[in-house]
Design a protein that fits this description.
about 160 residues; alpha+beta; about 30% helix; about 20% strand; globular; DUF4265 domain-containing protein
Amino acid sequence: MSRDIGIYIQKESYPPTDVLRNAIIQEGFPCVLDDEFDPLTYGGFLLCPVDGSPAGFEYHVRPIDEDELEEVEASFTPDTVILLSTGSNEREWISAVATASCLAKLAGGIMVNYYTGEQITAEHATDWARTQIALQKLLNRRIIDPIRPCLKSAA
């Protein structure tokens, strides 16, 4: 199963990659983004180790299309979308949500969780990411059941 996040921004608001990398660290996320890439032309797997272990996500940039523009509820007109995709690996998801949230916050963008359709504004982005990371950790410890969270027995 693929998990995908879109970050809708105005291209000129994309922060320098070293600023993005430092923001992830300053927000207290457990990952370090490889900042040696051109953020507006790069496409492929981007390294972002989590707690010193290998991790990362697929990174792609493209112009926004008219259909998306109508669906995104933004107070600005985005012209670019950055797509971050992961598999089911916990570290990949942590690295993607941390990076997406800091990018949205720095660029004043809107994040979209394509799995749920949820749209997250820049001012709520890092809080959303922290919640996602905490939920992922609970899922991996099997403390909550992702299918029937209210029905799991205390056996």
